[in-house]
Design brief:
It comes from Rhynchospora tenuis. GO terms for molecular function: glycosyltransferase activity. It contains 10 helices and 8 strands. By secondary structure, it is α/β, with parallel strands linked by helices. Helix 3 packs across helix 8.
Length: about 280
Amino acid sequence: MQVPMYGFSPKIVDCPGYWPPNVYSCGFWFLPMEWQFSCDRCRLAFSNNSSIPPALEELCQRHASLQNFLNGSSSPPIFVGLSSIGSMGFLTNPKAFLAVLQRVIEATEYRFILFTSGYEPLDTSIRYLAGNDDPNSSHMLGETDSTFLFNSQLLCFSGSIPYNWLFPRCALAIHHAGSGSTAAALHAGIPQVLCPYLLDQFYWAERLCWIGVAPDPLPRHHLCPDSLDDININAACDALRVAIDRATSAKIRLQASRIAKKLSSEDGIGEALNILREKVVSR
């Protein structure tokens, strides 16, 4: 027996009336938090109590740097991450991308956390700007160190950590509108700035704008310009600053919080298992 199930929330996506009755929207699906850390030491530390951050001495150096950065100011940082967009060939000029973030930092008081997703050209550009390596090096960021740029206002992080742990500690999330990042930010109740690149990312970016938790999506050249010339960098900086200002407005922050409360009672994995037990196992 076929039982089609979707891992998104019916509170976010309207399920059309023409769907057959055996098609289910279960709620968003998330892996267990402890599975999502990039090192065994931190996986064990967080598995003991996922709601309370472990002591710094329990963490590896990389995750300890991240937690220190999160706790280093009364103002939570802004998350930036493009997941696999770089490795898929869309981040053609990592230095221009970093230059946009630098201009925004210089013009504001924002702090940023950049997840590099281990994309080698981006890691190399970061290390070059930090003065840690030759720009032609093929090595990635170190396995134990995070890298700080721009007067320590930008933390570049090459590891893996659960978004549903990180995002509630951030002011907003800037990302590519992938379904996983979207779901985690919705559950965290934070505003989002979206820059879609392909496939369903355009749907999610438009949908989040429609439900009021994000401003209009950014064109890709307003986050990741193709060239380093001042005109393109300044235009992208201005567009990103406007998007951040709109995303952090009281109206969008309140709506993001409201949506998170609606989603808090959902258990997408649990609902999917219940459907399988009822429709498949019991037959």
